[in-house]
Amino acid sequence: MIKQDVKAYILKKYNIKESDFLGKGQEAEVYLYDHDRVIKLYDSTAFKKQQILKRFYESMVSEGIHFELPTIHEIIKEQDAILTIEKRIEGRNIQKDLSQYNTKELEVFFKNYLNTIVSIQNINLQTKMSEYKLLSDYEWSERPNDWYDFLKQSLICKNNEVNEYLLKDVLNYEMKYERLLKLLSVEYKGDYSLIHGDFYPSNLLVNEEGKISGVIDFGLMTLYGDFVFDVALSWFLFDLYEELGETKLEKYLKMILDTIGYEYKNRIYLYVLFYSIYSANFFSENCSDGHYQWSVRNLNNEKYWEKLEE
After folding, report:
1. Was domain 95-307 assigned CATH 2.60.40.10?
2. Could you give the C-alpha distances from 113 to 119, 212, 226, 230, in angstroms and in order?
3. Which of the listed residues 168, 222, 229, 309 has the most CB atoms within 10 Å of its CB?
4. Over the stretch 214-254, which tens digit does the pLDDT of each residue have?
């Protein structure tokens, strides 16, 4: 959290007005800097992470991609804050508009949305990621054997943090947790590609024609592994605020399976349930917020567990 006096000092120094405010995310406040750039304000702990992201963005090769990707031009320390100067991607956030879309408009957006997430796997990196996760959460005594082993080891570490809460709130949690470990104990035989890992409408920008113009906010869950993980989260995270209703989301899931193949259906639910545990304490260490309750609802949805066997 940036102190108000520090923020006021930075805004004055860089000639930024309150009217230049563009939005606020989980970690940063974003302001218009000039026609081509934005400035983001972080607390002082963000320096190392921004260095990693800067190198990551610079290594992206996005030839043939129909949307823009982030670029960090500078990382600057200012008192008890970190600021980055980044490329401005033209577009607006569409999250609030989706609940107003009619059936046809939503279907068109679903197609653009799916096309975008599927194409993420075509982004190449000049410098390959050295780990399965760009911003590592845990240190491994031995490197995981493959993608599934990475997820399994990550789940074990995460369970140590959230077990006491989920045991109280999720029916048959121990049995469900062991079931996921078993499913992730087999060898992963699929392909590897870049995974955004936090792909949902708030992390997209759209132009005046409603087409996706940019994908932002790589970092928190950016991974190197199975592209189906990204596709699963694109469905699962689409309607966090439950404004669209289950029927419309089922239509999107059908569109996903028609596109990538029905053989991936149980894997989609595997990743949905993994993420529900893994993200349970993302925003509250003691699991006392709305996101945790969202995770609990998913883990108590017996339909999701039944789909693992289809």
Report:
1. no
2. 10, 8, 18, 12
3. 229
4. 999 999 899 999 999 999 999 999 877 677 777 888 999 99
Output the average pLDDT for the chain: 93
Tens digit of each residue's pLDDT (9 = 90 or more) over 21-71: 998 877 899 999 999 999 999 999 999 999 999 999 999 998 888 899 999
- The ranges assigned to domains in the chain are 4-87, 95-307
DSSP per-residue letters across the chain: ---HHHHHHHHHHTT--GGGEEEE-SS-EEEE-SSSEEEEEEEGGGHHHHHHHHHHHHHEE-TT-SSB---EEEEEEETTEEEEEEEPPP-B--GGGGGG--HHHHHHHHHHHHHHHHHGGG-EESS--SSSBSS-SS--SS--SSHHHHHHHHHHHHHHHHHHHHHHHSTTHHHHHHHHHHHTTSPP-S--EEE-S--SGGGEEE-TTS-EEEE---STT-EEE-HHHHHHHHHHTTTTT--S-HHHHHHHHHHHHHHH-GGGHHHHHHHHHHHHHHTTTSS-TTS-SHHHHHHHHHHT-HHHHHHTT-
Identical topology for domains 4-87 and 95-307: no
